[in-house]
């Protein structure tokens, strides 16, 4: 514990927390920074995942509230998605303790690289002229399928989950970019809280470091969400591409090299 509380480690975690919160609020993927940072200061793998969930909750709450206040999210349209995400996160978090993740580690880079290529070359990927705010509840079947799959993935691992939510929401529900970002943040908040409870019951959360990093992620998330709302697609799209390519490179290196 003395090693974990070394001032230099706390300073590094603070900086990484701010940057991770900023990225998470816009395109997701902050866990690719925060989880390795926690591992580097001596947190065991399962506890690093649980501690990261605690920290991520702070950032998700901040960015979710910011998007909601800007009227970019209509809660009663997304009840099915929220319920499906909740149960998906329970399933995914339980599987963390049961499944060897080697196969998933090798598959994830391919999936995320595919998202990057699709986003780069498809003019509709980040919201085109056919995307508009919904005037009624989007398809419950699509919401349910999306919520279960992505909630399970976030409960299990979670790298790049914001990118998955953003792109799939544009594709499935024809949402504008900012509303897709808002939906992504609210749903990841649900899966983060659900997974946190499960990891906490399993004793896999370092509360002190999680709270410290969480406060820093909260600051980064506030700046990130405000920046996304103010600058829109010209700001988000290049950051999205850089983020997903970086995530894919990191995962490919870890899994294959």
Automatic annotation (TrEMBL):
It is a multi-pass membrane protein. Keywords: Cell membrane, Membrane, Transmembrane, Transmembrane helix, Transport. Its main location: membrane. InterPro entries: TM_pro_TauE-like, TSUP. The lineage of its organism: Bacteria, Pseudomonadati, Pseudomonadota, Gammaproteobacteria, Alteromonadales. Signal peptide: none annotated. This is Probable membrane transporter protein. It is found in: Cell membrane. It comes from Shewanella aestuarii.
């Amino acid at each position: 514990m003395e090693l974990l509380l070394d001032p230099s480690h706390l300073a590094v975690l603070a900086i990484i927390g701010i940057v991770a919160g900023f990225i998470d609020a816009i395109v997701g993927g902050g866990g690719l920074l925060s989880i390795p940072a926690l591992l580097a200061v001596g947190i065991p793998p399962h506890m690093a995942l649980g501690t990261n969930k605690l920290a991520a909750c702070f950032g998700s709450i901040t960015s979710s509230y910011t998007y909601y206040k800007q009227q970019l999210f209509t809660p009663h349209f997304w009840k099915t998605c929220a319920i499906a995400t909740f149960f998906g996160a329970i399933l995914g978090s339980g599987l963390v303790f049961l499944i060897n993740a080697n196969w998933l580690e090798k598959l994830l880079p391919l999936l995320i690289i595919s998202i990057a290529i699709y986003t780069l070359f498809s003019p509709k990927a980040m919201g085109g002229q056919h995307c508009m705010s919904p005037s009624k509840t989007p398809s419950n079947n699509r919401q349910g399928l999306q919520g279960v799959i992505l909630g399970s993935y976030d409960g299990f691992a979670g790298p790049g989950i914001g990118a998955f939510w953003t792109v799939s929401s544009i594709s499935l529900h024809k949402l504008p970019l900012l509303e897709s970002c808002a939906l992504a943040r609210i749903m990841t908040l649900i899966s983060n809280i659900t997974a946190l409870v499960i990891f906490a019951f399993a004793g896999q959360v370092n509360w002190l470091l999680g709270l410290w990093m969480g406060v820093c992620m909260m600051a980064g998330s506030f700046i990130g969400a405000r920046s996304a709302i103010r600058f829109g697609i010209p700001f988000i799209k290049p950051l999205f591409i850089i983020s997903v390519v970086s995530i894919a490179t990191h995962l490919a290196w870890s899994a294959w090299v």
